[in-house]
């Protein structure tokens, strides 16, 4: 984990701790950042200077000096990746497991001392060493007894608070639960009146840097570079962790826009600048603490058995078969006390042994609650991991859908054959309410679907209405119109050449006026005047003035770039040309009309009949679309000799783009 803030020294951390203690809400803030653990009398986190020192090395400390600092806490207060060597690892363990350290280390040291004293007694037969052994052993047991008693009392108090009192308000529940699911500003100390809001903005920025560094590090591990990351994490701010009233007011104002509870609720949130697609799924502890608890129980029983045996043997002068006077019987008796029972024919005779047995039973009772909690944690983590696996499977099976639209039988057959050459599968028919879709199979990671519409852009079965209905029902990622077209540039193109539309010009919508230079007369006042003018005067001489008012639109830039890339290596039939295409519901088979269109649109490569309808449907549904057709005639002296070649070339080119993974990845809606 990189150090994202200026890491203060140990002396600076001690100075900061003294500054914290001088504030009005120091005790309240420290109680939050250093809560009391299950033992009740020992805090679960280390002293404040140690926490500041470790948090700085973990990148969680926002440091502006001893009098301006904040601590970020990860969801569930889980441990961040341990880096920094053995020394920092030990300090990190002390900071995070202060209560466990104080629970285990002192009695362990006393027992080690007792063992050494016993060894000294055996080797030297000194009388003082025996008293030292007894004193150290009794001290260890007494220490553990006091802490276990505190554990039971604390557990009963927690049980009463949770189940014996009325339901607390929502904000109090949120203050307890939200830090388990979100990053939290758990501690905030600022005593300088200058720029207090800067500390909060730095905390927000540092959180973003932490999250980005984790994702970037993971990306590098799997061989991926992630150029842009938007942070969607919500930062929880706990008022109890702020040390001064003035800073509490600043935090309240900073989060006011995102307030979800009333004023003085004790918990506020600062939303990210980007909305999250779904709530984050946090992985917390798997319940491994159960094994530590069981190991602790085993150690306690093992040590206590020796004490029980010594006490019982001292109290029973004659041979006692019904008392645990040796280590094996004592261990057997204490093991039974874990299950709240006594072995048949074996009972202790001393109050000290009964006390140890009672504490062992209480320890086992607490173990039941620990086991239940551990099982819940384990099942939660299992569910989380299962969801991750399911998401990975869904990611692996994620495919796009590409809908290909044609208008003639030759075009339909050409697309089916081109797809079958790659997939080896026959089309499967899918009967929708008003259309029949042919599913051609999957090429790379896109599912190809084919539908044949009526020629032209108007009519019940035309491209406009059919494409709109299909887009709504099939929800394709890409919409491809392919087939045959007429060319307008025989001087540059040849039969079978493929025309990819980079601008579609809808020429049906037009205004036709009198020839240029015509001076309109006085408007008619009645139908009779208009009839007389038609009978007595000829139409104005010359060609009509034509004004195209239809849309001139660009297809999907994503598809254009991919088709251009594949065209660089295309050698399988016909050359590929990119340029404007005309679209009108008119079958062009007249030299005069062809010449007129070429004169009006000299940049156009060719024309066809369905493109305007497909564009209209795609624009309404915001689907990426493109038009890819091949030349079969020149708009006059038409014949059918080159229909098959043109349809085949266009179909194969579209399928080649699918083979080259051109349809594998669909851009998210609204992305650039």
UniProtKB/TrEMBL annotation:
<dbReference type="GO" id="GO:0008930">
    <property type="term" value="F:methylthioadenosine nucleosidase activity"/>
</dbReference>
<feature type="domain" description="Nucleoside phosphorylase">
    <location>
        <begin position="403"/>
        <end position="657"/>
    </location>
</feature>
<dbReference type="GO" id="GO:0008782">
    <property type="term" value="F:adenosylhomocysteine nucleosidase activity"/>
</dbReference>
<dbReference type="GO" id="GO:0009116">
    <property type="term" value="P:nucleoside metabolic process"/>
</dbReference>
<protein>
    <recommendedName>
        <fullName>Nucleoside phosphorylase domain-containing protein</fullName>
    </recommendedName>
</protein>
<feature type="transmembrane region" description="Helical">
    <location>
        <begin position="97"/>
        <end position="120"/>
    </location>
</feature>
<keyword id="KW-1133">Transmembrane helix</keyword>
<dbReference type="InterPro" id="IPR035994">
    <property type="entry name" value="Nucleoside_phosphorylase_sf"/>
</dbReference>
<dbReference type="GO" id="GO:0019284">
    <property type="term" value="P:L-methionine salvage from S-adenosylmethionine"/>
</dbReference>
<dbReference type="GO" id="GO:0005829">
    <property type="term" value="C:cytosol"/>
</dbReference>
<feature type="transmembrane region" description="Helical">
    <location>
        <begin position="290"/>
        <end position="309"/>
    </location>
</feature>
<keyword id="KW-0812">Transmembrane</keyword>
<dbReference type="InterPro" id="IPR000845">
    <property type="entry name" value="Nucleoside_phosphorylase_d"/>
</dbReference>
<feature type="transmembrane region" description="Helical">
    <location>
        <begin position="353"/>
        <end position="375"/>
    </location>
</feature>
<dbReference type="Pfam" id="PF01048">
    <property type="entry name" value="PNP_UDP_1"/>
</dbReference>
<keyword id="KW-0472">Membrane</keyword>
<feature type="transmembrane region" description="Helical">
    <location>
        <begin position="132"/>
        <end position="160"/>
    </location>
</feature>
